[in-house]
Write a structure and sequence with these properties.
By secondary structure, the protein is an all-beta fold. It contains no helices and 33 strands. It has a domain of 149 residues.
């Protein structure tokens, strides 16, 4: 069955309905299979052969990540670190691999060298059944795919499509400013349904609260948006612009700017922004070869750092019917970020003298694209497009330089710019 979504724009096909989550399997170390994805035999490669790494991407809880290569894709678990699954293909590789937590459903977008699936096509693949259960085709290249348990989001350069996961019917179309990076993020808590993406003007973020049928436009920066992320419940948004000097945190309900921190003074390309699960820390990676951690003032008052911030904290935490739903998140205490000793002169000195600077730092090789996320017990996990994996710890009281605990070269890659 093929359904035309709009004339000459896109099409979706599926042989059956998709039944989620009852059919979900789990990626474990013992998983394997006799045949490769898309019905093709697996191509045997030696681990000593160099592989081109197209992309790396976290799953929704940052417990594992996917690596798209010129030969297929691989899935890795973070703690403990190990490769749990791989598919090597004869037809070519995939530039985008999007996981859905740890289940058997994947969204795949082929590379330009893939002879069977081009970059303008999205495959919804069930790896337990070894078959394609949905397929989307577009006139232009797919920039990103995001998954929730109830929807599939496909990002093109000027438009975003939102589909129902059960039947792949189109639910929403969103126009955006030119978005070559495929910027888009989703909430993943079952009680909220939030999407954030670039708006139609430079520096603008559009936030869709689908459960409330509400759209909020946030004028986040003066220059174009370079990177963004949401908390799991979608109530907080962190953004950076192409200048890469400031990271701002917003209330997605009313657009209020809650905090601003400074990565540096020089222009930088921000590769990733991560918020810790307890909303106490923010991590930023950039092309300067650094990962910065900032202390957030935006948190549940009195929340124990070791507690689950999404456990029952009272209905108000999830109540999206009030613009004051973040009232319990705003702590009156000041974060531990370093401030300038000249901040008392902020009325006459440049703005950066009164900015909040990073609490902890880590230096990595420059010119490599690294993306960071928070692990357990005050750790940061970092993956790079050079095939490297780092686990580092930071002192939550004194900050300073982070300590490297683990380094693994998970993939021998061809040399390529970050």
């Amino acid at each position: 069955m093929t359904v035309s979504l709009s004339p000459m724009t896109s099409a979706v096909s599926t042989s059956r309905g998709i039944f989620l989550p009852a059919g979900f399997g789990v990626y474990e170390a013992s998983m394997g299979g006799a045949s490769g994805p898309l019905g093709q035999p697996e191509q045997q490669f030696s681990d000593n052969d160099e592989t081109e790494l197209y992309s790396v991407s976290w799953n929704q809880d940052y417990g594992c990540f996917a690596a798209g290569t010129n030969r297929g894709f691989r899935i890795y678990n973070c703690d403990p670190f190990k490769e749990t699954f791989r598919r090597d293909l004869k037809s070519g590789g995939f530039k985008i691999i999007e996981m859905l937590f740890r289940c058997n459903i994947l969204a795949l977008v082929g590379s330009k060298a893939n002879t069977q699936y081009p970059p303008n096509k999205v495959i919804i693949w069930d790896d337990h059944q070894s078959r394609c259960i949905g397929e989307f085709s577009f006139r232009s290249e797919v920039r990103a795919v995001k998954l929730r348990r109830d929807c599939v989001v496909i990002v093109l350069e000027h438009k975003i499509y939102v589909y129902n996961f059960m039947d792949l019917k189109l639910l929403h179309q969103i126009e955006t400013l030119a978005n070559p990076r495929g910027l888009c993020c989703l909430s993943h808590h079952p009680n909220t349904s939030v999407l954030a993406c670039p708006g139609l003007r430079r520096g603008q973020v559009r936030v869709e609260h689908f459960g409330l049928n509400m759209t909020k436009i946030i004028n986040a920066h003066d220059s174009k948006i370079a990177c963004m992320t949401l908390t799991m419940d979608g109530l907080l948004l962190a953004t950076a612009s192409m200048r890469g000097t400031l990271i701002r945190i917003f209330n997605t309900m009313d657009g209020t700017r809650l905090q601003e921190v400074r990565r540096g003074v020089d222009k930088a390309d921000i590769y990733s922004i991560a918020l810790s699960p307890n909303v106490q820390w923010l991590a930023v990676s950039s092309d300067k070869g650094t990962v910065h951690i900032f202390s957030l003032r935006v948190r549940v008052v009195g929340e124990d750092g070791s507690a689950d911030p999404y456990a029952a904290k009272g209905p108000a935490f999830y109540d999206q019917n009030s613009s004051n739903s973040l009232g319990h998140l705003i702590s009156p205490i000041t974060g531990a970020n370093t401030g300038s000793t000249l901040s008392f002169m902020k009325g006459v000195l440049p703005k950066y003298f009164s900015s909040e600077w990073s609490f902890a730092q880590l230096h990595l090789p420059e010119c490599t694209h690294f993306i960071a996320a928070f692990g357990a017990q005050n750790t940061i996990v970092i993956i790079g497009l050079d095939g490297s994996f780092y686990r580092c710890s930071f002192d939550p009281v004194n900050g300073g330089v982070m300590v490297q605990q683990e380094y693994i070269r998970f993939l021998k890659t061809e040399t390529r710019p970050g």
